Task: inverse folding
DNA sequence: TCCTGACTCTTACAACGTAAGAGTCGATCC
DNA sequence: GGATCGACTCTTACGTTGTAAGAGTCAGGA
């Protein structure tokens, strides 16, 4: 009797990237708690221990997922001005985050040192230096933009503290105590108008404009 | 023979906040992986199952830790202008995050719906509305500031992607491939000058200035 | 004195990460 | 051909995890 009869869910042979991509798919489908070595193996038609030939341990799966996610970042068009490059970078980050929200929330606190993900960073820094910023200032501008984009995407994916948009149409606003928070609660209807896309744009434009004035001449 | 002889590490009776505070202390001391119900119980001189009388499950411990952390946020001085209130809010968030870095990294992706943590939010929104912003615009400005501060604090606590400051004095910059990243690598020495405090300030000032121009008149 | 409720303990179980080592099989040599 | 080998997978096993179930402890009120 053959031992492993169910490899239907995988076409090629097992590999590091196949494992990581399956992990991302699993987390997106069943949530962060579903990511166990056994279930991940089952997802690939394989026992848990087989995964250890492609990945040293579970923690490396998480790091690999982050790397795999962020390697989707597209570098900005060559020769773009720094404002465009910065806007591009922030938007790319948000796109990647919202395209795999569970994975992003699960791995957002890992520093990302993969070569592939550094290309867009290098491009942005290059654009800043080209525009006359000192390398130190360029790094500050990059950090500001990356922090904003990561923070916004994380809030969006995890649920805003003050949320106008939610599955049940209520969000955190519905439960607000009117006495304790008169302004928030009294303006519920108007607060509901905020759309996450527009809010992201407003903050991004403001940040870039502010950096223009302060940092790069 | 008495059963539990070691309650030395706790003075009062067990309580929800005692459990949560012990969890924060444990995570800060021994890292996120050390947070198991058994070890948390031991920390309080109690068996694991006793904790379940104060907390429904492990996940609630994490939520409670986040709540406990963020309830440290101090609201801005009464009647402060919105710029000052915004700056205050962002700085408070960073202070809280860096004062308990492990806990912050562990819980940063949880939406925070606790009453206590909403007070500074309400104060900031109030200041914005007082300055003439519509509630929807005020919420956008709040989100921009909170996203920036959370994102920056998270990067700072988890390690910047392009890091100038690190324990061994090298950080990610030392390992950079000179060929692939000429600008980053070629300016290593200048990039090292960036201090996290100053970078945070620069981004914050830029964001507030930008919001001033775009949003609130 | 007995009850009651809040708290804690003990015991138990299924699921977890992973160490150790044995089985399988295609490719490469003689 | 057969032998060897390396890459891969499986089985088995161990200690640890979260937590369900229920019994023990004990202060305060009847």
Result:
């Amino acid at each position: 009797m053959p031992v492993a009869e169910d490899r239907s869910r995988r076409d090629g042979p097992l590999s590091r990237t196949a494992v990581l991509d399956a992990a991302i798919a699993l987390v997106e489908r069943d949530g962060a708690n579903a990511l166990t070595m056994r279930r991940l193996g089952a997802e690939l038609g394989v026992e848990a221990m087989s995964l250890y030939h492609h990945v040293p341990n579970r923690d490396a799966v998480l790091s690999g997922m982050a790397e795999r996610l962020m390697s989707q970042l597209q570098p900005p068009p060559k020769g773009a001005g720094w404002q465009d490059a910065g806007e591009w970078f922030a938007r790319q980050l948000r796109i990647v985050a919202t395209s795999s929200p569970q994975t992003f929330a699960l791995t957002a606190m890992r520093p990302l040192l993969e070569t592939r993900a550094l290309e867009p960073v290098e491009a942005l820094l290059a654009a800043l230096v080209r525009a006359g910023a000192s390398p130190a200032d360029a790094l500050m501008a990059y950090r500001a933009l990356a922090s904003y984009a990561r923070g916004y995407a994380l809030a969006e994916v995890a649920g805003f503290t003050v949320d106008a948009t939610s599955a049940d149409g209520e969000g955190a606003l519905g439960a607000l105590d009117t006495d304790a928070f008169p302004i928030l609660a009294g303006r519920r209807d108007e607060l509901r108008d905020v759309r996450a896309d527009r809010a992201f744009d407003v903050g991004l434009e403001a940040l870039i404009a502010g950096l223009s004035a302060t940092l790069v001449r």
